[in-house]
Amino acid sequence: KQEVTQIPAALSVPEGENLVLNCSFTDSAIYNLQWFRQDPGKGLTSLLLIQSSQREQTSGRLNASLDKSSGRSTLYIAASQPGDSATYLCAESSGGGADGLTFGKGTHLIIQP
Amino acid sequence: NAGVTQTPKFRILKIGQSMTLQCTQDMNHNYMYWYRQDPGMGLKLIYYSVGAGITDKGEVPNGYNVSRSTTEDFPLRLELAAPSQTSVYFCASRTSGRANEQFFGPGTRLTVL
Q1: Shortest CB distance from B33 goes to which of A43, A45, A100?
Q2: Interface with chain B: mutation pick from A103, A107, A108, highest number of B CBs within 10 Å
Q3: What is the dihedral of CA A47, A51, A55, A59, to 10 degrees?
Q4: Alpha carbons A60 and B108: distance in angstroms, whole number
Q5: Which chain A residues are Cβ-neighbours of B43 within 8 angstroms?
Q6: Nearest-5° angle of CA B19, CA B107, CA A37?
Q7: What confidence tens digit (pLDDT) does each residue in A47-98 have?
Q8: Which one of A31, A99, A105 has the shortest CB-CB distance to B42?
Q9: Which of A84, B41, B71, B88 has the fewest CB atoms in 10 Å of its CB?
C-alpha cells in the first residue's frame, strides 16, 4: 500500500514570506503527483500536476518540484498573501492506470496579515 | 462547462436508512471516482469507473455500491447507513490520457445519526 506524508500538519507565517510545503511518498513507480488547495467546507482545486518525467512545474507564485529518487515533492509559495490561507493536499498516482489518487493528510496554512 | 457537480450538498441520515449521492460531469471524461474525507485526513478512494458499465473497488468500498450507466453520471449508493459513514464525499473525473489530472466536485457532507 502506497503512503503519502505531508509535513508540517500546520503552518502559520506572516504575509510576504516565501514558504515551502513538503510531501513524501513511498511509491517508487509514481506516475505523477498533483497538488491541490482546499478551502474550508469546499472541494479541491487542482494547483499543479507534475509528471514523473518532469522535475518541476510553475504557475504564477507557485512552484512544485518532484524528486523520484528521494520520494519527495515540494510546493514553493512565493510572497505569500492572506488569500493563500487554506489546506494544501498532495496526491500521487501509480502506473498511469485507472486507479485513483493516494492522498496525504494535508498542511493547514495560515498567512497572517 | 459546469465541470463536476454533486447533489445534495448536505444530508442527515438515520442509522439504517439508504440514500444515493449523485455525481455528474459534462467534460466527457471516461474515468470517474468516489472518495471520502474524514476530519483531518486525506481522501480515500471508495470506487472508480473507467467507462459506462465498468466499475471497480477502491481502498474502502464496504457499505457502498456504484453504477455507471452513462458517461456523465456516477451515483454512489449507501444501503444501510452507519455512523462510520459520516464523512464528506467527493466525486472526481479525468480523461484517459496520460495527463491524468483529476477534477473534483464540491462534495456532499453526510451525517449519520
Answers
A1: A100
A2: A103
A3: -20
A4: 31
A5: 44, 89, 91, 101, 103
A6: 160
A7: 999 988 899 999 999 999 999 999 999 999 999 999 999 999 999 988 656 6
A8: A105
A9: B41
Compute the residue count for chain A. 113
Give the C-alpha separation, A85 to A64, whole Å: 17
Its sign, for the CA torsion A97, A100, A106, A110, is positive
Rounded distance between C-alpha atoms, residue B81 and residue B14, angstroms: 7
| B57-99 pLDDT tens trace | 999 999 999 999 999 999 999 989 999 999 999 999 998 775 6
Note whether A46 contacts B103, CB cutoff 8 Å: yes
Q: How far is CA A67 from CA A22, A28, A57, A64, A73, in A?
A: 12, 11, 12, 10, 6
CB atoms within 10 A of CB B14: 8
- Helix, coil or strand: residue A98: coil
Three-class DSSP category at A91: strand
> How far is Cα A81 from Cα A50, in angstroms, rounded to an integer?
24
A89 close to B (CB below 8 A): yes
